[in-house]
Amino acid sequence: xxxxxxxxxxxxxxxxxxxxxxxxxxxxxxxxxxxxxxxxxxxxxxxxxxxxxxxxxxxxxxxxxxxxxxxxxxxxxxxxxxxxxxxxxxxxxx
Length: 94
Fold this sequence. Notes:
Blueprint: H1 2-21, H2 29-40, H3 46-51, H4 60-72, E1 77-80, E2 88-91
Antiparallel strand pairs: 1-2
Helix pairs in contact: 2-4
């Protein structure tokens, strides 16, 4: 058990260092999680974020606020979908 807990702490430290490299260390947990989701998934939308089981602990309003914060700060960008004009596709700027 102690070995498993030690590995968990090592993973937390590694995650913390990666988030610092991206400049995310001052962001909230949900903002960091949304950024990670958008970078890992093509054609991300607020709906796809909300449908991911990891985000079930967050309300739709909280996710929308995190997306607004990240887009306002230029960390991610939002563009209208060419397929469904109601959807906004979230991506990481080049």
